[in-house]
Design goal:
This protein has 271 residues and is mainly alpha-helical. It has one domain. Helix content is 71%, strand content 2%. It has 8 helices and 2 strands, in the order ααααββαααα. The protein has a two-stranded antiparallel sheet with strand order 1-2. A hairpin with a 2-residue loop joins strand 1 and strand 2. The longest helix has 48 residues. The protein starts with 7 loop residues before the first helix and ends with a helix. The relative contact order is 0.14.
Length: 271
């Protein structure tokens, strides 16, 4: 993931003394930045599709036999990236209500996430509706001059919708991560078979090198998805904490909990 400056949270707190809910703003700003960086992991369903074209093809004889159309997976990746962007904009909008000027140049919040089936991949009507509801809420918050007290109403109104959206994103992570882990096993099996059929040391060395490189790459991707999942979970915990303490947003216990979660999110983004 792109690295977030570790001092970001401290800067937020020390440089925005006029913010009415500075700890809440620090959390929302950190969540927004994490969601922006999380959607940039350089391996998605389209990459998995391209790798599957040769790893699971045992009968191909010519290079053209290992080509396949991954257009549906590319569309699916773009929709999931848009979901991350919309959730990030929602937290940016909460930051605006917390009393800080948004760091985002306002533009229409993403594009509608359409329900549909893309090859073997599906965006359900539930997923589409909750994400688009958050996009509508964020757009409204950016374009309407609400007072900071509006933040309580927005958190209460959007909490269940956000929870469903976050759970669905975590489900996407689990799904793709499981597919990648199975692919790692397939790489090992294919390379073992090739090693058994290869007569020369030079050819075996090529197989070993290819195996080590691919296993390393897939391991790094899995680790990135583990951190992405944990980051989403911390963000969800933070929003739930705000929701459960909605009538006491200035309590010291809430402030400590929110800042602890923000630090955890920063740590996951930096490591």
């Amino acid at each position: 993931m792109p690295v977030l400056p570790f001092g970001l949270l401290l800067l937020c707190i020390t440089q925005i003394g006029c913010v009415q809910l500075k700890e809440v703003f620090a959390f929302t700003e950190t969540s927004q930045k994490a969601l922006e960086s999380d959607h940039q992991i350089g391996y998605g369903y389209a990459d998995y599709c391209f790798d599957s074209c040769y790893l699971y093809n045992v009968s191909g004889q010519q290079l053209v036999d290992f080509d396949c159309n991954c257009g549906n997976a590319e569309v699916y990746d773009s929709l999931i990236k848009n979901e991350y962007r919309i959730l990030g904009e929602y937290f940016a909008a909460l930051g605006k209500l917390a009393g800080a000027k948004s760091t985002i140049n306002f533009a229409p919040i993403g594009t509608a996430v359409a329900a549909g089936t893309y090859g073997s991949l599906t965006i359900t009507s539930t997923e589409s509706s909750v994400v688009n509801a958050l996009a509508t809420a964020a757009t409204d918050l950016f374009t309407t001059k609400y007072k900071s007290k509006k933040i309580k109403e927005i958190i209460v109104t959007c909490h269940d919708t956000l929870s469903v959206a976050m759970e669905l994103l975590k489900l996407h992570i689990d799904n793709l991560k499981s597919m990648i882990e199975l692919m790692r096993l397939k790489v090992q099996q294919r390379c073992d078979l090739l090693m058994a059929k290869t007569p020369t040391d030079a050819e075996k060395w090529t197989i070993v090198y290819t195996y080590k490189q691919k296993i390393k790459q897939l391991g790094q991707i899995t680790a990135s998805y583990n951190k992405r999942y944990q980051s989403l979970d911390k963000i969800q915990q933070g929003h739930t904490t705000l929701y459960e303490n909605i009538n006491d947003l200035n309590s010291q216990a809430l402030k400590k909990r929110i800042l602890d979660l923000a630090y955890n999110i920063i740590y996951l983004s930096n490591n």
